[in-house]
Backbone:
């Protein structure tokens, strides 16, 4: 048995936990728990194997005594080590290929300024439900570790019904909300309800340098969508897969969700949620949109695990 497990067994025993509880908590046999406790009572050691030496004795001390520490003491010690409690970032798990593509994308566009980004319409879909979390979860992390895998809270499905919406934003304004109802988003629906109805009319507002950004969702990348964009002369911004943190509309979705949750009468039904989303979307401050130039710089300068 490794010393860390033995130390955890002793800590649980000192905290009044039974052998059965310790075995279930650590997922080991009860006989192993009893052996570890007997050995510790006889020798005050954590292992029978002399070849297993813990380089840092503080690790054992923290394992044994952490259950007795006063919570403000723990927070103070974490802060002294440069950690602070922050809401966990959400997002998909990244493969090596995803990180490579993200890094190449960031390097290619990091030097763009407002003059370039003002030509881009950022679009995305998001799902909301009346029982969405309030965003009060926290993780302890150092500066630059926002998108480290250990600091990300994986997204889960919506229970109790949900509403999917699509929209687009640019540095100067944003489109109307599109409610994706009566089924999932398909390529035909994406062309008719989103691109043809909102993206094409929006292009002249930006001008001849208009660039359309959407992610790599399957309905967005089908032949029918690509051919339609070619026919109407809309240029796409190449987008790296699994990179929601690059898209400024992600922050707008988060802000929109907070506005809905903080309403005096929080919506309890899907119809109420629909009305609340429309009302709050009409009041989105433009300052939440004008963030793309800094986003790539922050990502490039952040911890390497972000890639």
Residues:
């Amino acid at each position: 048995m490794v010393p860390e497990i033995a130390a955890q067994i002793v800590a649980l025993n000192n905290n009044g936990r039974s052998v059965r509880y310790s075995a279930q908590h650590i997922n080991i046999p009860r006989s192993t728990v009893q052996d570890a406790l007997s050995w510790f009572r006889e020798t005050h050691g954590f292992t029978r194997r002399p070849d297993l030496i813990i380089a840092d004795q503080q690790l054992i001390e923290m394992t044994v005594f952490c259950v007795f520490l006063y919570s403000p003491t723990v927070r103070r010690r974490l802060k002294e080590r440069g950690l602070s409690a922050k809401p966990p970032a959400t997002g998909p798990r990244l493969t090596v290929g995803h990180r490579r593509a993200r890094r190449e994308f960031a390097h290619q566009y990091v030097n763009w300024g407002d003059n370039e980004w003002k030509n881009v319409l950022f679009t995305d879909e998001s799902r909301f439900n009346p029982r969405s979390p309030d965003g009060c979860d926290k993780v302890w992390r150092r500066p630059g570790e926002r998108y480290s895998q250990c600091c990300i809270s994986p997204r889960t499905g919506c229970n109790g019904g949900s509403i999917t919406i699509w929209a687009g934003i640019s540095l100067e304004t944003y489109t109307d909300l599109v409610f994706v109802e009566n089924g999932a988003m398909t390529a035909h629906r994406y062309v008719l309800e989103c691109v043809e109805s909102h993206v094409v009319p929006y292009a002249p507002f930006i001008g001849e340098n208009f660039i359309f950004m959407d992610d790599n969702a399957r309905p967005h990348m089908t032949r029918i969508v690509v051919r339609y964009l070619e026919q109407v002369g809309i240029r796409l911004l190449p987008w790296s897969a699994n990179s929601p943190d690059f898209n400024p509309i992600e922050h707008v979705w988060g802000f929109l969700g907070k506005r809905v949750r903080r309403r005096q009468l929080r919506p309890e039904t899907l119809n109420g949620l629909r009305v609340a989303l429309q009302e709050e979307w009409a009041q989105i401050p433009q300052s939440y949109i004008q963030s793309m130039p800094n986003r790539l710089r922050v990502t490039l300068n952040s911890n390497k695990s972000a890639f």
Remarks:
- DSSP finds twelve helices and seven strands in the chain.
